[in-house]
Amino acid sequence: MKLKIYVSLSILIASLSFAQVKKTERPAFNQELATSLGADQYGMKAYTIVMLTTGTTKIEDKAKMGELMKGHMSNIGKLADEGKIVVAGPFLEKNKENYRGMFIFNTKSKEEAEAWVKTDPAVQAGVFSYEIFPWYGSAALPLYLKHHQEIAKENP
């Protein structure tokens, strides 16, 4: 009985060890993909992060605010479809900086990112303001968007 347990445990440990080794194998470098994504030798590239902050305009009319938020979401979708925005989303908790959400734009130009964020109706209305930061991240970041469509049952 003990021998069976030891043999079973040995097989289990060997299987887990093999699975762990297999999991950490590095995939083959894909030059074509790296080039198409604008990756440097580390697989990274420059982006621009825009942190949306609480703006100076307070809108009490729920219908008007709803329309602005609908336009905000529509604009995010348009920018994503155009390949300009690769990440967008709200923060789930209040914070001392009054950050409300963020965009990661597919540009290293702060001026271009500013022009894109200014197309947001909620920014135009003053509901949101923004801060802009250069950022360095994985060049593969835009690839997640196509998979997001596969896992989202509804759009907000």
Automatic annotation (TrEMBL):
Cleavable signal peptide: 1-19
Domain annotation YCII-related: ranges: 63-135
Keyword terms, alphabetized: Signal
Entry protein name: YCII-related domain-containing protein
SUPFAM superfamilies: Dimeric alpha+beta barrel
Domain of life of the source: Bacteria
Similarity-based family: Belongs to the YciI family.
Organism per entry: Chryseobacterium soli
Database matches in InterPro entries: Dimeric_a/b-barrel, YCII
Any matching Pfam family: YCII
